[in-house]
Write a structure and sequence with these properties.
The chain has 294 residues and is α/β, with parallel strands linked by helices. The protein is 38% helix and 23% strand. The longest helix has 18 residues. Bound molecules: guanosine-5'-triphosphate (GTP) and magnesium ion. The site of magnesium ion has 5 residues, from helix 1.
């Protein structure tokens, strides 16, 4: 049997649901999700394997105007990954319709040689007439030959999209074993799961100032894992917010994150969290290297 395989980069504005869609296509959580824009910082590869095709889905940061060394790196990475992919999947938020940000991305994709497929996401929020309007707006972007209505949240329409992309990528062997979900090292995935719980509970500038770093993972026998992690922020005031009155906030983050880690590793987890101030980490190029944000 001839197999097909290829890299598919997801492009779209922040918050349109790219990471949620990657998780839906892979069939498990490989990328964290939040209602804050610019959640994704690294290019994460999620692997979706059917009987005939393997898609290496490159979840990318939302396309935006760079503000600092961090967002500049994120932006350059998006451009490199798109250039290196076999296909691009442009994701649009069907609930919000098409705007200048989408047109900017569509134009960049039209200039590239890469075949493009468009997914109109969040159709669970739309009735039929509004879905039709969203599909028409997507078609008016004049990018790619195919537009798929999907809900990454309910997974409606996700299967046909995976099948379509599977037929679009070139013939070739699989890149990863069929059961692989993602290429992330375990410490990075665990750090991201902790960051997700921080994002859920913080607002305004705090989510953007937070980075999580897993310092140490200690497996004590079959069913206990001790994870030591630091949450970095950029100012004392942010540290105060994360710790909360009487330590209530950090406790809530720790409890929720521990449950997520336990689900991921299939063992009991003891999570040791500390909050540290690390001024201007987002502007520190050497540090961004070490964090694997490249
Ligand atoms: N109703 C609904 N909400 C969705 C759907 N897909 C994603 N969302 C929500 O949209 C928000 C953003 O989702 P993400 O997957 O983090 O978006 P993203 O495009 O990866 O965002 P960045 O990484 O910041 O660029 C989250 O609150 C999701 O729960 C969907 O199909 N339906
Ligand atoms: Mg994302």
């Amino acid at each position: 049997m001839v197999t097909r395989s290829g890299f598919v980069a997801l492009a779209g504005r922040p918050n349109v649901g790219k990471s949620t869609l990657v998780n839906a296509m892979v069939g498990r959580k490989v990328a964290i999700v939040s209602d804050k824009p610019q959640t994704t910082r690294r290019a994460i590869r999620g692997v979706a394997t059917t009987d005939r095709a393997q898609l290496v889905l490159v979840d990318l940061p939302g396309v935006q105007r760079p503000l600092d060394a961090l967002t500049e790196r994120m932006q350059r990475r998006v451009e490199r990954e798109l250039a290196d992919s076999d296909a691009a999947l442009m994701v649009i938020n069907g609930e919000e319709g098409v705007g200048p940000g989408d047109r900017f991305i569509a134009e960049a994709l039209r200039r590239s040689e890469t075949p493009v497929v468009v997914a109109v996401n969040k159709i669970d929020r739309l009735d039929r007439p509004r879905t039709v309007l969203a599909l028409e707006a997507a078609a008016s972007l004049d990018v790619g030959d195919d537009v798929f209505p999907v809900s990454a949240r309910t997974r409606a329409g996700v299967r046909p999209l995976v099948e379509h992309l599977g037929a679009l990528v070139p013939a070739g062997p699989f890149y990863y074993p069929a059961q692989t979900g993602s290429d992330q090292p375990r410490d990075v995935l665990l750090a991201e799961l902790i960051r997700e719980q921080v994002l859920r509970r913080t607002f305004q500038e705090v989510p953007h100032a937070v980075e999580v770093f897993v310092e140490d993972i200690d497996e004590r026998g079959e069913d206990l894992m001790v994870v030591r992690a630091s949450i970095w922020v950029e100012a004392e005031s942010q540290k105060g917010i994360l710790i909360g009155a009487g330590g209530r906030m950090i406790k809530a983050i720790g409890t929720a994150a521990r449950h997520e880690l336990e689900r991921e590793v299939g063992a009991r987890v003891h999570l040791d969290l500390s909050v540290r101030v690390r001024r201007h980490w987002r502007a520190d190029e050497a540090l961004l290297d070490r964090l694997g944000i490249e």
